[in-house]
Design goal:
By secondary structure, this protein is α/β, with parallel strands linked by helices. It has an eight-stranded mixed beta sheet, sandwiched between helices. It has two domains: 6-163, Rossmann fold (3-Layer(aba) Sandwich); 175-260, ProC C-terminal domain-like fold, CATH 1.10.3730.10. The protein is built from eleven helices and eight strands. It starts with 5 loop residues before the first strand and ends with a helix. Strand 5 (94-97), helix 4 and strand 6 (116-121) form a beta-alpha-beta unit. The chain is elongated and about 70 Å long.
Length: 280
């Protein structure tokens, strides 16, 4: 990967998770990264102390010396930032946005024609470099810029190039997905405790079981159906458990959870962009 000069505009939790992943990966060095925010100098000093990255007040950032800007501020501040950037950067500089609810067409409309914009959506597992990150290019990024962005996101997990109009279903599956598994773990922990296991042991057993199943899925060239059938003997314990799961609507619940999360993602995006568009 070419040595890119990266600037984070915003210094919140997701920005820190990405910075941590970049530096830990060894593919991006701390001196390649500059972080700025609106006015929280204390937060910038924390990141400098923790990761060794460069920090600077927003009004002192040298925009011409940055190859990639990562937009990590609050979504409500996006219009002002885009207006500012449109007057300070060129179309050969790349904007990567991690802002929920702000589409690439919306950003492109606010920027100079031809500006390269890529929207990415990591999930919270980026903190441990296990994110499932969506990468959605706008109209203008080159093939090399898209591939470079994918490689950047692979510093914090796995990255998948998808179209903008698939971002809502991505959110339903991967953005909100960790919470579904945590909810499952809550129930596993509870039933284990009720049946005599201490909570910590029940939690560890459940977590290791999920981890092992996920690794089997990733490491073996088999479908979920094939893997399920491999552990389900006729009239056995697993078959009994699956029967109960299906009889109580387990599969339908998972489908509805993803559909409702995706639908809410679409609603929030429209509400946010409409609200920004109607501000005076």
């Amino acid at each position: 990967m070419k040595k890119q000069r990266i600037a984070f505009l915003g210094a919140g939790n997701m920005a820190e998770a990405m910075i941590s992943g970049f530096v830990q990966s060894g593919n991006i060095t701390a001196d390649q990264i500059t972080v700025t925010n609106l006015n929280n100098e204390k937060r910038l000093l924390e990141l400098n102390d923790k990761y060794g990255v460069k920090v600077t007040p927003k009004d002192q950032l040298d925009y011409k010396k940055i190859d990639v800007f990562i937009l990590a501020m609050k979504p409500k501040d996006i219009d002002g930032v885009l207006h500012d950037l449109s007057n300070k950067i060129s179309t050969n500089q790349l904007l990567i946005s991690i802002l929920a609810g702000i589409s690439t067409p919306y950003m492109e409309e606010k920027l100079t024609n031809g500006q390269q914009v890529i929207r990415v959506m990591p999930n919270t597992s980026s903190m441990i470099r296990e994110s499932a990150t969506a990468v959605s290019p706008g109209i203008y990024p080159t093939f090399d810029q898209v591939q470079m962005t994918k490689e950047l996101m692979e510093c914090i997990g796995q990255a998948y190039i998808i179209k903008e109009d698939k971002m809502d279903i991505y959110t339903g599956i991967a953005g909100s997905g960790p919470a579904y598994f945590y909810n499952l773990m809550e129930h596993i922990e509870e039933i284990g405790h009720n049946e005599g296991l201490d909570r910590e042991t029940a939690r560890q057993i459940g977590a290791q079981t999920l981890l092992g199943a996920a690794k089997m899925m990733l490491d073996q060239d088999k479908t979920p159906t094939e893997l399920r059938k491999n552990v389900t003997s006729p009239n056995g314990t697993t078959a009994a458990g699956l029967d109960a799961l299906n009889n109580h609507g387990g599969g339908d619940a998972i489908i509805e959870a993803i559909k409702h999360a995706a639908s809410r993602s679409e609603e929030l995006r429209k509400e946010l962009e409409y609200g920004l568009a109607t501000q005076i």
